Amino acid sequence: MAEELPSPSRRRFLTGAATVVGGAGLVFTAVPFLGFLKPNVEARAAGAPIEVDVSKVAPGQKLSFEWKGSPIWVIGRGEKHLETLEQRVDRLRDPDSEKPQQPSYAANQHRSVSPGTFVVIPICTHLGCIPIFYPEREPREFDDEWLGGFFCACHGAMYDMAGRVYKGTPAPLNLEIPPHRFKDEHTLVIGEHPEDYQGG
Question: From first to last of its 200 residues, what are the pLDDT tens digits of the chain?
Fold first, then answer.
């Protein structure tokens, strides 16, 4: 007696049932994995420190990260960039970083722990736009004597290579500097102060 083959409708039902059961198994497998990732995402959003390898960041190069829901740029600065920080400071609104836009250890000319590595929150202090990074020292349509730095195309705010704002532009303050320290020669920690930091 010949074996009776299942009808097409029954085959579709069995295939669909197997797909549903397999999909449910995949969901139950994925949920613990996603739960494992969730604390890391939440911790970073809450301000958990992040570590950055800066060993290969060349002068004029920019790395982008996120910390506490804000963008963070880590920028390499060479001797030519640092030299510009001493030039035409009379054009700057707050050249000595007297306003508290940075921790006290970054209230210096280069506004960082290490002169060659600049860490900044790139949010214009006028209305919150993200400025454009122009590291080259060359004339620009917005400044014939451009020394390198940041230009906000929203309303024309300009900042130098240390995030210090120019006079005569709408931004009232220098760019904000987040807490940062070096764990070792090549590892930058964003979100933590240096160990000897006393506050302020």
Answer: 555 555 666 666 656 655 655 555 544 544 444 444 444 555 555 678 999 999 989 999 999 999 999 999 999 999 999 999 999 899 999 999 999 999 999 999 999 999 999 999 999 999 999 999 999 999 999 999 999 999 999 999 999 999 999 999 999 999 999 999 999 989 999 999 998 887 75
Structure tokens at 153: 């195309």
**51 — phi, psi (to 5°)?**
-105, 140
The pTM for the full model equals 0.76
Residue 75's H or E segment, with its range, is strand 70-76
Half-sphere exposure of 26 (CA within 13 A, CB side): 6
Give the integer Cα–Cα distance in Å for 58 and 40: 29
Measure the CA–CA gap between 25 and 69, rounded to whole angstroms: 34
- Phi and psi at 170, nearest 5°, equal -70, -15
CA–CA distance, 52 with 190 (Å, rounded to integer): 8
